[in-house]
Design goal:
Length: 249
């Protein structure tokens, strides 16, 4: 019996626990590594973060059209940019943007008129000769409010805005403008109200039938400045932010 006796080695409960813990640790390390790799890849694809264009009540991101300075007619306080002085001049961003998303709020007084330009170049003597415009208006007290083509929220004089979306003078209105390649989308007070494609057959026909037909640079730039219009009336802006988008594939 002694010669044929088999020796059985028993593993203690502590050894089983240590082995199991090692497996768990290895699994967790692999999982965390995989998550880190996915996170890194995702971060590389995420567009640039939002940029506050009035950060710290500063106008450092802005200048007047065809100037490196800003006139005294524009001022910013408590996060609100206001045009109050005469001959303030149009403002443009120092940076240029091709594909982007812009958000801001605007407010006008009775009969007030202004606008938001995009992809503006400085090759022309006036900003509106090259840049499409999102109309800012007190529809109730300005003559342009009689036509949807020139009412608040329209792609000025080309694509109409629906009625009943803009708020009365003295109230804040929210704008969202998204430009991706040739595709343009405009929101007013959280409603998508205008969509169009730059350079499309429809676009070209609308331009040909408008005053813009005489302006060869209009809507042609693939990149340019964001502009805020001085139309002679008081206007205020706040919560102005922008982010760059990846070009459409």
């Amino acid at each position: 019996m002694a010669g044929n006796q088999r020796l059985h080695t028993r593993t203690s409960p502590d050894n089983h626990l240590q082995t199991r813990n090692r497996y768990h640790i290895t699994f967790l390390l692999l999982a965390f590594t995989q998550i880190a790799l996915i996170s890194t890849a995702y971060s590389a694809e995420v567009p640039e973060r939002w940029e506050n264009l009035l950060a710290n009540d500063s106008l450092a991101a802005w200048r007047n059209y065809q100037s490196q300075n800003i006139s005294d007619g524009w001022s910013v306080s408590n996060g609100t940019l206001q045009k109050t002085g005469r001959n303030a001049g149009d403002l443009i961003t120092r940076e240029q943007y091709s594909d982007f998303e812009l958000e801001l709020e605007w407010r006008v007084e009775n009969g007030g008129n202004s606008g938001i330009f995009f992809r503006a170049t400085e090759a022309e003597p006036r900003i509106y000769l090259s840049a499409p415009e999102v109309q800012i208006l007190d529809d109730n007290h300005h003559k342009d409010g009689r036509s949807p083509l020139t009412s608040a929220g329209s792609n000025y004089a080309l694509h109409p805005a629906p009625r009943g979306v803009v708020r009365s003078a003295g109230a804040w209105n929210q704008v969202r403008l998204r430009v991706e390649g040739d595709q343009v989308s405009q929101w007013l007070n959280n409603q998508l109200i205008v969509e169009y494609q730059l350079g499309s057959e429809d676009w070209q026909q609308r331009v040909a039938n408008s005053k813009f037909a005489k302006w060869p640079s209009y809507g042609k730039a693939a990149s340019g400045h964001i502009g805020l219009q001085d139309h002679g009336d008081p206007v205020a802006f706040r919560n102005i932010r922008i982010r760059r988008l990846e070009p459409p594939k």
